[in-house]
Amino acid sequence: MTRHWAAVLAALVLALVGASCGEDAPHHPAAGSTLYATLRDPDGDGALSPAPGEPLLDRGGSPRPVQTLVTFAQIADAHVRDEESAARVPFLDRLGPPLHSTFRPQEALTLHVLRATVDALNALHPAAVVQTGDLADNAQRNELVQAMTVLRGGTVRPDSGAPGASGPQLASNPDPFFYRPDVDAPRHPGMLAAAQRPFRSPGLRAPLHATLGNHDVLVQGELAPDARTQALAVGDRAVVAVDPALVEGVSRPVTTDAIARVLGTGRAERVAPDAERRQVSHEQARRLTGARTVEAFDIGPIRALALDVTRPEGGSGGRVSAAQLAWLDAQLIAAADRPVVVFTHQPLDASEGGAAALALLAAHPNVLAAVAGHTHRNAVRRGPGGVWLITTASLTDFPSQARFFQLVRTEGGGLALETFMVDHGAGPRGLAGIARGLAFLDAQGGRPNGFLGRREDRNVRLYRSP
Amino acid sequence: VRRDRRSALAGLGVLAAALVVGVCATVAFALSTGFDRSARAADLPDVVVRFDAARRADVDARLRTLPNVVARAYRFEATGVGLRAGDETTERGAVQVVAARGRHGYAVVDGRDLRPGRARETVVEQGVARAWGLGVGDRVRVGRLGRLRIAGVARSPDNVAFPLASAARVYVGEGLVRARFGGGELPVDQALLWLADRERTDVTLAQARSQAYGIHGISFLTRGSVEALIGHAAGVVVGLLVAFAVVALGAAGVMLGTAAHADVRRRLPGTAVRRALGFGRGRLARDAAARAARMTLPAAAAGLALGWLLAIGPTRSLLAILNEAPPGAAVLPLLAACLAAIVALVVGAATWPAWRATAGAPAALLRGGELAGRTGRRRTWAPRPPSANPLGLGVRLVSARRARFAGTVAVVAACGAVVLLMLALASLLERLRDDPATLGKRYALTLSAGEDALPAIRSVEGVEAAAPRWVLTAADASSLGEALEVVAFRGDHTAFEAPPLAEGRRLRGDGEAEVGLGLADALGLAPGGILALQLPAGEEVRFRVVGVVRALDDEGRIAYVRPARLGAAVAAGPPAIAVRLEPGASRTTVEARLRERGFEPTVVAGAAGRDDTLLGLLGDVLRVVAGAVGLVLLYALAQALSLTASERGRTLALLRTLGAGPGTVALVLAGAGAALVLPAALLAVALEGVVLAPVVADLAAGYADLPLRASAGQAVLVTAGLLGLASLAAAWVAWRLGRIPLATAMRERP
């Protein structure tokens, strides 16, 4: 292996450090609104079981709702992953944070989870669905194409490279740090093969709007694709193991040099190349997903404003440009008294320039909320001026939920934004349910990291009050 | 008076059989539930994770993320610590440093647990306390911690007790250790995990493994593994004891049922008279049931109590060795159930024939009919000229009542089969203790030496072959709680270790494995399958299973492989050298020759446990059961002969009138006894060989071949014993007959 190749891989790995893009999901056929039923592990045995729903909690007020004006849904961080790709470094997962999302036990099932989520949302009949980014995991074309096929409808073909399952989860892999569904607990024999088989998706039965996430356009959500990363992605060689002693010797915080040194000693194997694994540019990602740098659209009475705050040059954090600020200001003025909801991938309060954007929102009492993904964690917090800052769990990590919104008129003529989480069902061949179960067990995933959030981060009725 | 005597005799039989039941039920219950009861009492963790000493925070950061874990605790264990109390001393002390608060995973059986703080106190394991005669308040010197007051005595079934376990274990608090050696953070090398659902242990362990990177020397010990390890220490003795007890319980049931059946037949004439007088069938059956219950209840209760009393002492000793709790009152429900079962059995066996017998016309019963509905000519002995051969006459007398004859033969056969089984057990245990070949081992000695010593070892006179033998404990890579022993020889392992092949073939290559049947059953392995092993250093290796062997060692949870794939696991230390002797060579002599050359050979042990106490206990139980079975036998034979003498009293009186002396009468009765015991002996041999031996072998060690069939010599011995008992019973009955005046005897009617 050349030093050059190792350096590229090292950069890819390092990209994960700042990505903070989580994991997981449980399993049970229960699906839909968590207002009525959801899945929990009350006895702490690591198995999810049906649990009572969580009614809405009032936050910021208490006038009774009298009329639902419109509904819409949010899908966040599906992280559809080509787990057979050559441009991966799953063997670094064992090092723990920040490298822990290089491998997920349920990573072969991301498309199935997305499909199950489509079914769950369709059953709730939203007026629109907003996909807030990180639809793909590694900015690969095949990831985005497959994910969009699920969302728009059609036959999905999860397999890449040579026909059939491949990768570190095969039972033939003697590396015990990977979950191998055919032999490891909980056993799911045949899961990998089933995951590669084509399936049909009905697609969303509502208009789809999208913003881009860092993983949609950056390699591992961090690094801008270039000729070297492209060569890796479509190439026929993959690093499958590294010297354990060297890996163990990597000191914290992990540096590019350290990873390059480790990868330079790695054992590479020949894999079946696949041109569909090529990484997409920003422009290509927008074409594939329908996302734009900025987009204003209506969801019933709501004026929705979506901003792409990813950094084309690389880096997992968000950035609101001056042009976007100006556009936002203009849109807010144009919206007049209409209720406004803003969508981004990275939360505004954690993005460069985000404070200025939030200040604009705070100045307009008709702005109800700023909705984002990226953190993989359910959270509902008050922002400047009483604007609600909402982040939503990922589909890939536990709790593997989407978020549903309802704009309601309240007694006295005011407005409130209701939101609740949506569980997906078992999905094609039960694989989405399996994915959620595995995600729940994942010791590096959303369960131990508290991605489910607090009770008041999930099903709430929000009143804008300064 | 005579009826009372008969009832007393029948009661004696019930008491003897109930005694067998009491002994066997107590032993079987106490041993088979000992681990679970003790684990519950001690709050034994579901998983013990062992690793090289590490910072608690580092380990906890990983373990707190595991699913299915409801509590965790940490320990540090220092081994090789000198312990001294009075005249007792050991350099193999194991000091477990525990947090004063939280769960400890042991039960304090005397005194109290450690208190937070720096108090100079310790809790000692009950094996140490018992072996050294220590109690609460005594002092023990614990290495550099100095003299500590014993605050409590603890029992934890995560290992067998000292001295069966070589290490003497004591617990001390973190505060004391920090105060003595400095206030810094203490490392930990064990984590105790309590799970929400033990059935999902494998799921937790799979996550633990994925989180274990960077923690060295990690291994997982589940409750199941602990139980298996303790079972290994106890050898096959416990399994045999439990299996024998279960089988003896069944045999006792046969004895009771058959005896009760015979007793009611004896009463049939009286029943016939009452039937003729107009008593209804139901009334007669109820009377029979009430009579049987009155006789059985006290006798069975006494027998069970006596059996419990006899068994509980040795059982308690064995459980203490295994670090397990005595059953206490927990066995009472079982004994109560046994009492109910015995009464039900005897009452049922007495009532049913009474009910059936009274189905026909009273006249038929008065004519001597036994069971209703029988057709054809009844064969009864009619007065004929006495035979010239008193023995032959006895045979004719006793066999005239065919049903009773068959019942008595059945009882005697059941007893004989149990006795044969006991003898076979004794032989097997002796072989297991002394003869490693029983385990399929063809080497007699092992010694610790490098491979460079092989030429010197092989050159010793009497040594036929010597080869390095590696043994390591691994876990199944998929079910990490499934511990197994991996044995590796470089070449053909069957030259040194060759348990019989049950399936497939012997291994031929580095990537192949033979697995024990116990392991194959546990993991669902068969030839063609893959054995994936998690080695102690954390790496995973795989072998293709080519054969399944019936290995007795380690309960069959064993795998034979070649060492090439074991990598660091076998490179770490020098292997043991297995030494096979030339045919006829004296083990002692070769041992001495090896010592002369500077080696320290160890005699290869068998599988009957590592402590003579275990064998002693088995001996105790067998003796008690043997005594009880002897009583049952004597009862059955005496009852049969007594009945025969009573029914045929006029015939025997006629003999005496014709000049026959007491010796002749005794010979007649001896002939009757022989007629009972000889077919019973044949039946016993068949019963033991075809039913009891396979059942016990399967219950005790289904993963191996246990040779439990009685030998010809043992069969002859049992037959002779039965004849002896028959003679004893005949002499007693003859003595009783001799005391009855002739005139009275001539009037006697059955």
Rg value of chain B: 32 Å
What's the number of helices of chain B? Answer: 22
Strand order of the largest sheet of chain B: 2-3-8-5-7-6
Task: Give the helix tally of chain A.
Answer: 13
Query: Could you tell me how far the N terminus lies from the C terminus of chain B, measured between alpha carbons in angstroms?
Result: 15 Å
Give an overview of the whole structure.
The complex is a heterodimer of chains A (466) and B (750). By secondary structure, chain A is an alpha/beta fold. Chain A has helices at 3-19, 110-124, 141-152, 191-196, 214-217, 227-234, 244-248, 256-264, 282-289, 322-335, 354-362, 431-441, 446-449; strands at 32-33, 37-40, 49-52, 57-59, 65-75, 129-131, 154-156, 199-201, 208-210, 237-241, 267-270, 294-299, 302-307, 340-343, 367-372, 379-382, 388-391, 401-410, 415-423, 460-462. In chain A, the strands form five sheets. In chain A, strands 1, 4, 5, 6, 9, 18, 19 and 20 form an eight-stranded mixed beta sheet that branches. A six-stranded mixed beta sheet of chain A has the order 12-13-14-15-17-16, with helices on one face. The radius of gyration of chain A is 21 Å and the shape is globular. Mean pLDDT of chain A is 89; it is low at 14-30. The relative contact order of chain B is 0.12. Chain B has 750 residues and is an alpha+beta fold. The chains are: A alpha/beta (466), B alpha+beta (750). The interface between A and B is medium-sized, with 28 and 34 residues.
What tags apply to this protein structure?
heterodimer; A: 466 residues; alpha/beta; 8-stranded mixed beta sheet; 6-stranded mixed beta sheet; 13 helices; 26% helix; B: 750 residues; alpha+beta; 6-stranded mixed beta barrel; 6-stranded mixed β-barrel; 51% helix; elongated
